[in-house]
Design goal:
Rossmann fold, 6-stranded parallel β-sheet, 7-stranded mixed β-sheet, homodimer, alpha/beta, 30 strands, 5 domains
């Protein structure tokens, strides 16, 4: 529970200052200006009064209890101050001071000291090197932060790794004229994490949507768990910066994180149902719609406009975002005809013409609200001088207040004209999300629709497979570890696959030509013969692989040939496997993602992965729904169903294998890398033809 | 020349009115309010005075000459008014009245009548059903329009098919606090076209960038020619709405155009070097940068920031847009060290820290301006309370005034604070394009870079090929026309290909088995044999195709078999062709685009075209540079160079064939559709293996 942090009943400011623009001065002024509902205790050994408040020489002099202490003193003095907070019984501290883990060894040491004190006294720490928190709740009005934007109460809460970005998002909401619920920027995040804050806001009934800005997570698993719970309850809008290599480097230089492109954050967003954005302005605009509008029940949109072109632009953007234009019922059209002007265009977009007044707007809105074939409403409106735009605005605001179907509005006006401003205010009070541009308005609506799909999506639980011999696989790995191997030999790889029920083309390892022929006879021709020796790593290049051997003579000759040529490598073994050409080559692979576990990769092999990079990643454990998504979201998905007279492949079996690979990785976390390449898929069977495991 | 329209020395308003908000009243007020520099003549048979101006009963009563007449009277009265304008010697008319071609037959008739009068008297017509024009030039100040946004003089001119979109773009520029040069929305465009306006602005030295909004062109060729000239002189920013099928339908319902997705407009943008946008707000933001900043000479960007996260976001967007982070020289780093604070981060992004004052900003800007490894500058700046943001703004504005390298700025501030507003004003006056969001600022800069590439791109002239026998091809087509054929037989198709120097796999048409064997012997085995009969359209399905015939016996048996089985179809012929498997299957095709000519399509055949839709279109005539672009812009371009041990193909030959197809289409405009599928490409040769021509 983070109540003491976000809903403090009293705040002490350690490092309170009389110096204008200093943090210790600004925080006090902000608390006062914002109307903090509890007592503010400035702490300063020298001053007597700051901002008209009595100053305490020490925290311990404060008569009452302190929920939250804000610390803005030089970094070396912070650990002692935190310890004193503990002694006083303070519940949470916000440390604005910088110069900790972001500044090398000495800073890391100081930060550890802080954390140790906090743990000892059961205190929570926000920061260090952070901005702090804001809570606009009229019962609290806590502005424990040194920024200077004063938001109105609202429904959107913002948490940002970067105070700069957090501040600009807060400012953007302010500029849009919509309120904010709570704000947090937690800097070095030595204790309170973004995950915890998101979870806390998930339970905050006053918060309707959460904005998360990050450049990666130090504990992605914790965030994954938190986001999974919260994103089903309310929309979480996420943006991860540092997507490009240069961007990741830029991020690392200001946060001290590792400089590598982290793809897992966006995979976490996807897995947990977070709406992912690449543009902060787009995210803010979408949040405005979430703050006041209901989630649509489907993708059928009705467009009302009083101007031509902007509705065309909106249509393009709506359709591109997955919505489709609703077909109005005959009843709807009849009702429209009763009230609309004869020159109006009664299709969808429904063009009321610039002359449309309140009667026409009310009729149009009523009709779309009542038509069961319409899930949401997109409005494009200019403000002609000759119509009563204020009355029109009232009609639209009233429709929005019904909360029946989401409305998003592109309001094109000149706000230097008084009555247009008045209309704007009415729309705002009615909770109508208004955007000056048709594309932007339309895209905000498509985000509401996307969230309706995310909410409906249940990825389910990972399957647990019967008949899997985990112990056997673990024993094979333990042996390999004992032997100091990092790359497992083919026999181990195939045995592990088989232990997890991953079908492998029939195979046997033999020592000589006679055994090879016997094995090939048993497996059935044609076969592949490969040399097996720990000393030979690039078999193909050494003439150690023979494919499509059609009879015993060919097998014998291949083994004898290798035996002679490669005898200098010591004792050789031979790997005999069924040759299975003609299927569709797939690839299933995996890599470890720092602090998160494994990612599973799936795609088509050969040129598809090499040229088109057409592969899909998911975070383990991968559920059946997710495995299905991996198949269907390939650009080349149609090839799995068969094209140009070619038969499709057994997709259910592929989906099963992806899940088994995920299960394998979860049970054998020591695996650093693995792949099945190719996984050869046929209409009625799927086989691993080659595989690799690195531990 | 459109001077009388855009720079009228006198304006008459036919349909001048005393009624507030009527067009005939608003236009007069707008001219007055905007400070039109010439006389305004209200025409109204009844009123004596309107807006304090003397009213004329008839145009012919006006004492002086009239450059432009604005017409806002009922549609039926317009033709007579236009005729009277002709008699008076008016040079151009703007017709606001609607109810013409957009409203069916009677309207079309009236519009034709107007045009006839105009042609007779040598007058130019803007509209009908249009908003009109605005010219902010202090020497003119013409507001011949009934909208209500009053732009300051500036450098961006806007032309829009839709007045609604034109108005919102004008408003967006106004809201950004930047000026506008000229504005035009020409509605039904019975005479003056968007192409003419763009061409006119191309010669207007006061115009630095042109914004074009359209939903398609009635005369795309005219626009193509105009854009080609202008886009090399100054940036033209274009947006084409109605990209989706629903969008095209929405466009058709308000403009009466054909409801089909028109892909050619964006191909024209591409061919002529117009910057294409899908988002009007994005286009407006980019125009702001073009209005004041020079074009970068390369793609190396230096980032200056005083906050962490926003620079990370900017980096992502800059890199995604094709820019790369400049590596600062050792000299630059040394110079930075002299002035920057020790906690500053002297890489790229160059983080001056929030505490950076005018000395630090000036030093950073100087260093980046002087470093030859930097082509453009991206700034992210917050406005901390404790620094002199006004002084910082002055330094940045001064750097922008140098006009040496483009600067684009993400300015994150609270404009309710007076000194922040002051800083904003200083930046604006210095021509620094400021955007509140890092992504948006960065993308504006990437548009400057994109234009630098478009400006440098010279597609050259289409090649004229020697040795092409156009006459022969025309004769074949003439014969087919005479015979009433629309689909040409294979022999005609191949003969036409050969006449244009498009290599066809060796072939011969024969009548019987003996001739077939002789032909196959001459061509060389293996061969393909196909039955030829106008009565048989689906040869494969009828057993009329035999591939990979390896000797004379096989050819004889195939021909005899078909002769027996298909004898009921009358006299049969047989098409013998060299069998050439194993190459890379390409496809070159073409379709006719309404009023524009042909589009040429190129891609890889088979699954690439069917599943991946990986094809590129260009408008004919296709130059060598464009043909090269068609190859390189395929997603699967790497396959042309060879992958996985497969050899690449003879790209020069493919590029040559694409140009020859383009030449063929230009010379034979009667062709409605053609394709070469497959065009089989090898390392050292390329052959058309099958083709189709529809006339």
């Amino acid at each position: 529970m983070l109540d003491a942090l976000f809903k403090p009943r009293s705040v002490a400011v350690i490092g309170a200052s009389t110096k204008e623009y200093s943090i210790g001065n600004t925080v006090i002024k902000n608390l006062q200006h914002f109307g903090f509902t509890g007592p503010i205790y400035p702490i300063n050994p020298k001053a007597a009064e700051i901002c008209g408040l009595k100053v305490y020489k020490s925290l311990l002099d404060i008569p009452g209890p302190v929920d939250s202490a804000q610390i803005a003193i030089p970094n070396r003095l912070v650990p002692a101050a935190v310890e004193e907070c503990g002694k006083k019984g303070v519940k949470s501290v916000i440390i604005n001071t910088s110069g900790f883990s972001e500044l090398g060894e000495e800073g890391i040491r100081l930060q550890k000291e802080i954390l140790a004190h906090a743990r000892h006294y059961g205190m929570r720490v926000m920061g260090p090197n952070c901005q702090g928190i804001i809570n606009t709740d009229p019962a609290v009005r806590a502005y424990c932060d040194f920024t200077f934007t004063y938001p109105e109460p609202g429904y959107i809460s913002i948490v940002a790794l970067s105070g700069g970005v957090g501040g600009l998002i807060m400012q953007a909401l302010f500029d849009l004229g919509i309120g904010m619920r709570m704000y947090a920027s937690n800097g070095n995040a030595c204790d309170v994490s973004i995950a915890e804050i998101v979870k806390y806001w998930g339970d905050d009934d006053g918060c309707r949507a959460i904005i998360v800005y990050t450049e990666g997570f130090s504990n992605p698993k914790e965030f994954l768990e938190a986001a999974r719970t919260v994103a089903h309850k309310k929309p979480v809008l996420g943006m991860k910066a540092g997507r490009t290599e240069s961007g990741a480097q830029a991020a690392s230089s200001h946060t001290g994180s590792l400089a590598s492109v982290d793809t897992s954050t966006e995979l976490i967003f996807e897995k947990t149902g977070i709406l992912s954005f690449q543009d902060e302005a787009e995210m803010v605009r979408a949040s405005m719609a979430f703050a006041s509008q209901p989630i649509p029940k489907g993708n059928r949109v009705g467009i009302i406009t009083n101007t031509g072109g902007p509705a065309v632009i909106a249509t393009d953007a709506l359709v591109a975002g997955g919505l489709q234009l609703a077909k109005l019922s005959a009843k709807s059209t009849a009702k429209l005809k009763e009230v609309q002007y004869p020159e109006a265009s009664l299709g969808n977009p429904l063009d009321l013409m610039a002359t449309g007044g309140p009667a026409q707007w009310q009729n149009a809105l009523e009709v779309l609200m009542e038509d069961d074939g319409v899930d949401c409403i997109s409005i494009n409106a200019v403000t002609p001088l000759y119509v009563d735009v204020v009355a029109n605005a009232k009609v639209i605001a009233d429709a929005s207040r019904l909360g029946k179907k989401p409305i998003v509005m592109n309001f094109m006006t000149d706000s230097t004209v008084k009555r247009f401003r008045e209309a704007q205010k009415i729309l705002q009070e009615g909770g109508v999300p208004c955007y000056p541009n048709p594309s932007e308005a339309a895209r905000a609506l498509t985000e509401l629709y996307k969230y309706s799909r995310l909410q409906a999506r249940d990825i389910g639980q990972p399957e647990v497979f019967a008949g899997v011999d985990v112990a056997k696989a673990k024993a094979i790995i333990a042996d390999a570890q004992k032997a100091g191997r990092t790359i497992l030999p083919a026999t181990d790889v195939y045995s592990i696959f088989e232990a997890f029920g991953i079908p492998v083309a029939p195979w046997k390892v033999v020592s000589n030509a006679a055994e090879a022929v016997a094995a090939a006879d048993a497996i059935g021709y044609p076969v592949v013969v490969k040399v097996e020796s720990e000393k030979i790593s690039h078999k193909s290049d050494m003439g150690g692989v023979f494919i499509n051997l059609k009879d015993a003579a060919a097998v014998r000759s291949a083994v004898e040939d290798m035996g002679n040529r490669l005898s200098s490598y010591g004792e050789l073994k031979y790997f005999i496997q069924k040759f299975l050409p003609g299927g569709l080559e797939l690839i299933v692979g995996s890599t470890v993602s720092r602090n998160l576990g494994h990612l599973v990769m799936f795609g088509l092999g050969g040129i598809y992965v090499e040229v088109l990079k057409d592969v899909i990643f998911k975070v383990t454990p991968v559920t059946k729904v997710e495995a299905q998504e991996m198949l269907s979201s390939l650009k080349t998905a149609a090839l799995l169903d068969g094209v140009r007279g070619k038969k499709g492949v057994d997709k259910n079996r592929v989906i099963d294998i992806i899940q088994r690979v995920s299960y394998l990785l979860t049970e054998l976390p020591v695996i650093q890398e693995m792949d099945i390449n190719p996984l050869m898929a046929f209409e009625d069977a799927v086989y691993a033809l080659d595989g690799r495991i690195r531990i």
